[in-house]
Amino acid sequence: MGTIDATMPNLDSVMNERKAFDETKSGVKGLVDGGLKRIPEIFHCQPDKYQKANNTSHVIPVIDLVDIDNKDPSIYQGIVGKIKEACETLGFFQVVNHGIPLSVLEELKDGVKRFYEQDTEVKKDFYTRDMNRSFIYNSNYDIYSPPALNWRDTFACYLAPPDTLKPEEIPVVCRDIILEYGKHMMNLGTLLFELLSEDLGLHPNHLKDMDCTQGLFALCHYYPPCPEPELTVGTTKYSDNKWIDIAPVPGSLIVNVGDLLQLITNDRFKSFEHKVLANKIGPRISVASFFSTGNRSSSKLYGPMKELLSEDNPPKYRETTVADYVTYFVKKGLDGTSALTHYRI
To answer: How far is residue 233's CA from residue 223's CA, in Å, rounded to a whole number?
Structure first.
């Protein structure tokens, strides 16, 4: 006669609970608005997922772009060198004097907050898991995949290329500021890709000519206050467990190397895991901008750049399309492992 491990969760029960949560279309904020005192088990993470950060090992560099147009080559190369070192070691850096007015950033946060704090019945009209929509609002895009759900709600908005941009689909409460922010972010992203190209010893337009600036979408997260933050996280780690707190610098933007940038640079630039912790104080608003065409169909293949390869540095990854990578990433979910492993040779 067989035995049953009583410590193992009933998978059917877990899936049904996630399905029921999804069908409310009110997200994590809906749980908080309902007066929740204890978080459901579908949000419970294992202890190693929220171990304390180590503040003593590294400092995330703050790079000032105020002199980026300075004609003195030593000043310009100093900025390029700092970005190069950050991308090759930590995969993270912060930028100040980046050209996006503080008023735009503040209004963006206000606009995102306005959307989430609308009446639930109004927001339900935007709730979807159709990845082909231009505006996608839901909670936990990978709701049926990860070991535990994240304590956050999210909307995604495609801002480029122009043929994917449908302003009429963006909610009125945040439409104007998101469109304005998208224009500023495209300018900053183009500049950063020029600097990254130079970091690799290539022509400034190299990454742009590879269509790295063709697509842009924003993920706008809302982290409600959590009654039991020690049991969950706001965002599971993705893409070992030596965590570093990033102390925010007023007016700065955090830049990190993405998986596909690590792939095409053949591990020259590093895409490291990162996560967001839940907190009793809230809400917290964050906006993550991705230079990617997402799951939009394209036959363009990306692999390690031939200019960076040699007999001593052979390709470490097989080629993939952006759409194939995104499809795999979404299917895998935020399970704490890097999607790049799937593409290693």
So the answer is: 10
Q: What sign has the CA pseudo-torsion 296, 301, 307, 313?
A: positive
SS3 (DSSP) at 93: strand
- 174 neighbors 137 (Cβ within 8 angstroms): no
The answer to whether the CB of 193 falls within 8 A of the CB of 212 is yes
341 and 279 Cβ atoms separated by less than 8 Å:
no
Domains of the chain: 11-343 (2.60.120.330)
Which residues pair with residue 290 across a beta bridge? 217
Burial class (CB in 10 A: 0-12, 13-18, 19+), 45: buried
Per DSSP bridges, beta strands 92-96 and 253-256 are antiparallel
What whole-number distance in Å separates Cα of residue 243 and Cα of residue 52? 7
Cβ burial, residue 295 (10 Å; 0-12/13-18/19+):
middle
Rounded alpha-carbon distances, angstroms, from residue 178 to 95, 222, 252: 20, 15, 18
User: Which pTM was predicted?
Assistant: 0.87
Give the pLDDT confidence of 219-272 residue by residue, as tens digits. 999 999 999 998 887 555 444 455 667 777 889 999 999 999 999 999 999 998
Taking only the tens place, the pLDDT of each residue in 58-104 is 578 999 999 999 889 999 999 999 999 999 998 999 999 999 999 99
Tokens of 111: 């606009």
